[in-house]
Queue: 2 jobs
Job 1
Amino acid sequence: MGLFDGVKVVDFTHAYAGPFCSLNLGDFGADVIKIERVDGVDQARAWGPFKNGRSGYYASFNSGKKSITLNIASKEGKKIVFDLVKEADIVCSNFKAGTLEKYGIGYDDMKVLKPDIIYATISGFGSKGELSKLAAYDNVVQSMSGIMDLNGFPDKCHTKIGPAVGDSYSGLMLLLSIVIAYYYRLMTGEGQKVDVTMLGSLFSMLEYPILEYANKGKIYSRIGNKSLYCAPCDVYKTKDNFVAVTVKNNDMWDTFATKLGIEKNDKFSTNEGRLKYNNELKKIIESKFSSMFADDIENMFNDTDIPAAKVMGIAEALEDEHLSARDMVVEVKDPIMGPVKLVGNPIKLSENKPVLNRPSPKLGGNTDEILKGIGFNNEQIETLRKKGVI
Amino acid sequence: MKALNDIKILDLSEKLTVNLATMYLSSFGAEVTKLEKPQEGDAARLWQPLKNNKSIYFNFLNGGKKSITLDITTPEGKEIFKKIVPLYDVLCVSYKPGIMDSMGLGYEDLKKIKSDIIYASYTYFGESGPLKNKPGSSIVVQAKSVAMDMTGVINEEPVQAAPSIAEHYAAGYFATGIVMAVADKKKRGIGQKLDISLQDSMFSCIEAAPVAYMTIGEVHTRKGNFDPSCAPYDTFETCDGYVAVGCATQPQWEKFCDALGFEDLKNDDRFVDNEGRRTECLHVLRPLLAEKIIKLKKNYVEKKCCALGIPCSRVMNIQEITDMPNTHENGFTTKFMSEKLGDLIYPTIPFELSKTPADSFKDAPKLGENTKEILEHAGFNTDTLKKLIDENII
């Protein structure tokens, strides 16, 4: 049993941000109907990697959804949208602000037909101001939000967080706002519109630098992997890879120094001293680590309370026992690509197990089934196909 | 009526992650009570930035919450805790796995006191799996989440996501999981356990890395600022700073060339489709673009691209984004007149609900501000409370 069993989602999302959100709704039981425009299908279908002509990118964020192709600019297409919305609980989209309104299927149009609909949108920069009409991508939003300036090393170029956090985090914020609206709807029967912006989502992640700047005039920028609060707490080069280590206090430091055979030095006896001489300390630690393998370093602290870990790459993560035991790596049998491993769902609820082993749909793979569900017969479906509506 | 009006949450956590999650829930109407150690309280009460010797950071994360002090490691404290737990729907905990169980206050124990309790746990590596007891820290967990391996410059050291990106993901999932559980309680009358880990949360955001490795053996490791799926999708140096630009579709690429007058590249056979641009990006396309863009000014590139609908922005620091008109027009920050700290500027909650908007910000509670009120409500009399204060239990 999933919390969203019986909940219907009409899903206009594309690329990564929106699909990341509706993927989570589907994992917990929602029936997600993905509308792919005949005049511009989900652009992620053209994003690599490809196997047997299928986008692995698309397949990663659309598991378990149903796909219908639809020309939403046509009169018939619009009517089909309305018929679907009448039976739905949630509508999601991540077009730039105003797109669905332009097609006459904005919130105001939909709530007339379905007053209790939850209408959820992600836009790039917000609905007001000169940026509102612009399309947004993750790297641009990371660049604008201040995140890029805050990542990387002070003496080097600003760094994008590798994965597209501008998408997944705004998708997560939309998910949170949808579940809050869903709870309110359970209590009162009332729907509403919920909005998230990619820029606002990323900006909100910087609460500490914002509070410092806006209230104290202090400007934070990137500091690499160091900590401002304790040392050694950093990423260190080893013989074969990198390890992250955190030494939070003097007891940990004593253990750490003993294990590595670092000579006693008064400079390093307090956290304050270790922070002050952090660069020197890093050289000493890396001189020890340079002859050691990252795995061995991680293991050597197993019997201590010192957090230490090799920087794990994707190949290893997919075989990692702990991530598998947590159902964070799941195998999906894709009808075109064959078996692949994908990321599981991090929301671990004891009475709601996510359903994770479903493939993503072929383009328009469920068009007939979905149309029959709202009363169309084979003949009518053929006509719609000939007219280019589906 | 507020969205989460009738939900009562008891939050035993401190610092950032869970407090951010309960701040979201409190803003939408949930009644959140912080349970803090007597005398010391939440460590974040001392965190920078400070004003009038009080933490702005703590005030931001804990506005509108209540505070009760209670030492649950003492036998008396435990008994009091068991008496107040039934007053709440949700219990939030961020101790290491097993600590609450060892005190006789784990999920199974508390279920006996209140069968439909929602027990929400936040840990570094989760409450199950072989590494559940591994010592953690933010940077160490990030090292085990793949995201760190994916961030940084090619052939150089990996970079942690700063400042607290991982914790924000965990807070988002934690808050979502709680609302799902209370919705389930409303539907089926049951409670449950929520188990959110920092590692799972960060690992969930590694985009197409798993499928790229599984299908074509491509390892998505750090690649600087470019994206392996489409090109050009990157950051370039101009003569006066950096710009980020994203071309993920064919029309965007063509318009990008038009915007900046790169006719030669637009007509180059090697770059006619995304597959060509993407596979040739690092060694061919990127150097060609870099050579052209270094001669331009960042504002020029941004303006020209945006005019043709190409996602593009100069790289901004925290000052530039905070002061930008768009930030104010869209309410990404707000002024909060604090009774305790004077006028403050806060970042806002990054989602809007049209019918049930977030409450305006309030001040955080003083340590133990609501202890008396809550314990009296639970049936303790004044004499008992005085004794408990003397014994440093509350």
Job 2
Amino acid sequence: MGIADARAMHPSIDIVEADPEADRRLLEGLADWCDRYTPLVALDGIDGLFLDVTGCTHLFGGERAMLDEILSRFLQQGFDVRAGLAGTPGAAWAAARFCGDRIVASGEEEALLAPLPLAALRIAQEIRTSLESVGLRTAGAVMAAPRAPLVRRFGALLLQRLDQALGRLDEAISPRLPVAPLSVERHLAEPVTLTEEIERLVGMLATTLKTDLERRGEGARSLALLLFRVDGAVSRIALGTSRPMREPLLIKKLFHERLAALEQQIDAGYGFDLVRLSVLAVAAFDTQQTDLTGEAADDGADIALFADCIRARLGEGAVLQPVAVESHLPERAVAIVPFAEAPRRTTPPKKPDRMQAPMTIFPPERPIRLFRAPEPIDVPVTEMPEGPPLHFRWRRALYRVTRAEGPERIAAEWWREAPGDPAASTRDYFRIEDGDGRRYWLYRQGLYGNPQVPPRWFMHGVFA
Amino acid sequence: MAISAVARETVFALRRQIAKIEGTLPERLQAPAPATLDADAGVGPGVDLTIVRRGLAAALPDAFLPIGVERLDAALGGGLPKAALTEIHGLETRDAGAVAGFALSLVSLILNQAQGLPILWIGTSEIFHEAGFPYARGLHATFGIEPGQLLFSEAPRLVDALWVAEEAARMTALAAVILEIRGNPQRLDLTATRRLHARAQGAGRPVFLLRQAAGPEPTAAPVRLIAASAPAVPRETIAGPLAGSIGRPAFTVSIGKSRTALPGQFTLEWNPDERGFEERRDKERRAENPVPVVSLSGGRKDPAAAAGEILAFPAVGSPISPTPGNQPPPGQRATHLGPRRAG
């Protein structure tokens, strides 16, 4: 029926265009919410969810009670839901779509499937049509038919689906999110809204988590806090640590910073009724020997905790550390990496190692500040073609060069870059001082010989 | 006996505590040591004579970081307070190299005592974009700070930078904290600096507040220094100074505010090899312009007389007779005084 026909029949009809993306987002939101029942939640096409509740039902008072709770909660949220519970995904799928709200005990799959139409077997439309054309109209008829001719005529998928539904073949659902190695949760009779309450709950959950981590000899490297709101929205707050961590107070502190940063984004609404703390990644926790004063020998732990706090609040790149790189290009010689990814600092060697490169007696002078992108400067005239400038204009101010040292020629790294004109990318660096005593690092790119490509001047750094 | 010693220790500890809470140290005025006078005698007695406040009875012996320059240390009352907020100002953004260099040389002095501890440099994105990001190679070469000792924190907003600084200021695992801000923002007021200062006092670690292109404002920092760059002297070689070369970093540091309230301007040179400051005394080396300021007299035979010798009115009783030495010889007369030639 076209829109015109529908309008003719019902003039007041409201037309809304289909939005598959929004449907998808809604389904994912529902899947997030279903995380409260089991960590193994998978999407099924565009209109279904698989929940692997193996070993979870007793937490909700048995299969029937769990199913009822799921259905009533969905109903309260305004969704009309069909559910089925069975020992195999195939049987549960069929029970949900064709029987409705039915719990199939283990071994009863065959009885369930036998009267159902062929669509209950999750097979393609063509196979279904050709099966019906030979008179096999129910799943029971297919089960009764001899297997070998079926495979020969309709393909292996038909019998595979049948075997999976009947439990003869294993079928695993693929969960949306990786299952956390450890997670603890707390169902709340009264929903919480205040950030302080959430932080206190995190502290309590982390205390529970600590014993589990201690038993495993591990510490958390990555944590996630899931807040399930009463109306079904789920907030997921993740953070990482630079060292394995298991101390509840520290975990609480990290989440305190993270929650403070996210205060605008988390809408408590009517409150959260389930709070879950998951450990997403673990690492071996090596216990530190403390001396008699109670202070650990390693003081890097304080710095690591401090960096984690800053990172929790301001994001991944908030604390940076320089790492020396073997390169003669000034901008490549130091890599700035986030603190968590920097190599751990070890105690500096007392005497120079034999394996180290020989120390340069006169290392080239390097500026203390380097511009991220060299800034173009305007050089009207130089004394010699290859010499330093007499004046230059930088940021619209004119500078008079009183003294200059150089040039220090730095060529491009031919083994890294695409071959081009080597003269064009070669830089001649000058260390110059202006009339007021400020010291700068300038370079000239290119040579004066070529009239087509005049050399360009750049400001690259500032000396002390 | 033992009990009285313990009691005295307790009293001293309590005094220290009180002094720390009050933020001041009980002091008494004391004449400078004779050694100071001798050192200053070369400049001129009476010129540099300052009353130095010494004898910090209740202060910890290492409460101050001696900068290593006698006059500056004296003017600051013993050096920079270690457990405090210190402001270092630069008048323009392009002085950022000098301001950062001076602060880092102070950090380097601290690192001489606190080996191996990391330092944290916090800045807003604005200042790191305007003045350049700290370059670890240069810092290692000039100030001996290893790349592994350096931590940077770049915050997009001033509020975040201040928060990071407050968190960092109370860490004892950091040797020093540098907070770099541009201009005079509203948020960096007396309250914010007082919070930083209080945390620095609690942790016993210095916090350097670098303010580029900022005017003086009332803050809680006990010391404010204004740093600018000074022309460097040429490199020293065996054959004497190498003409046209740029030697060690030099700074012009003036005291904007200190506990002793003594003004002063100093030209300091940083020695990257020794990791220490030296003061440059002779002002003549600054004016290295080879062109003389006043043009020489024409014949060079008769140099200008010293000031005060020539009197417009001779002393009473002396005969008025112009000495020939005061007149230029006939050949050197100005042309307009000579006989005009017609034609």
